[in-house]
Amino acid sequence: MPRFVVPNLRDLKIEIRETHGLTQPITTVWYFKGPRQRIEHFFGSNAKTPITTNIFQCDQKTEIMLREYLKTYRSTPITYTDDPLHGSILRSTEPLLLSALMSL
User: Fold this and answer.
1) Quick one: residue 71, left, alpha or beta (phi over 0 = left, psi -120 to 50 = alpha)?
2) Please, what is the end-to-end C-alpha distance for the chain in angstroms?
3) Of 12, 41, 45, 76, which is most buried with the most CB atoms under 10 A?
4) Beta carbons within 10 angstroms of residue 46's beta carbon
5) pTM of this prediction?
6) For residues 99 and 72, which has the higher predicted lDDT (pLDDT)?
7) DSSP, res 102
């Protein structure tokens, strides 16, 4: 039976910029460090703050989604299921916590 494997990656950054017609570009940046992964989504060419940030803590089986502009975050457990029809998949379940971030 397959099991949940915690990755141990070296420091890595991948950045992709997409444009569709005349719309503003969307930039997605992936950061990998050990068992952690962070994905940031930026909208617009001069965006300094990401629209959303997803942090995957594979060693703690947790996903955290940050919405900095709304000052909110959501923490969700990552579960591993072995689906005979679709194969083994990782997925997040219902949010554990939805709360406001503290302002500095």
Assistant:
1) left
2) 47
3) 76
4) 6
5) 0.69
6) 72
7) P
